[in-house]
């Protein structure tokens, strides 16, 4: 694993300043990344120290806060905590999902096949978020494309490459609209990714029509 979120993004994660989609992407990366786990632990420690030394108003009364908490309506919805990774099946292959995602395994939609080479399934994580599982079989080239907004990708299994590098399980990538790339998988190595899109991707090459035929491109 050699592609990590930027340090500033980890800081924003700890301070709760990310959107829920970005927060989810980071949580999933951190689950499998000891290096970022260490960074997060440090940032949390710092944040804790800052809290301790923070000036507190005179009127701060713990018993008032406690009363407010116990006065809250209890929530009937069960808390969904996955204790075991769940399995997802695509194109006859089985993969175990990260724990962050296992909680949502019932919210994974139908797999769509693009020529039997690329498969995508939407995950209904939260309103307005375009989150997809993307499975690319071995030895496939995806036409060059760019993005109107941001695309972040988290590799879950296997690997893929583009003009800028090779990405393996756990790697986290953030691409913006200035980047054109043509991802591909090597012979003998397939890839399962989690993609987070803010805008649909735009294909920049002719071959892409094969993909665009399916309506709105690779992502619903
Ligand atoms: Zn990391």
From TrEMBL:
CDD domains membership: cupin_ChrR
Span of domain Putative zinc-finger: 8-37
Organism: Vibrio scophthalmi
This protein's name: ChrR-like cupin domain-containing protein
Location of the ChrR-like cupin domain: 126-197
InterPro entries from the UniProt entry: Anti-sigma_ChrR (IPR012807), Anti_sigma_zinc_sf (IPR041916), ChrR-like_cupin_dom (IPR025979), RmlC-like_jellyroll (IPR014710), RmlC_Cupin_sf (IPR011051), Znf_put (IPR027383)
Pfam families per record: Cupin_7 (PF12973), zf-HC2 (PF13490)
Organism classification: Bacteria, Pseudomonadati, Pseudomonadota, Gammaproteobacteria, Vibrionales
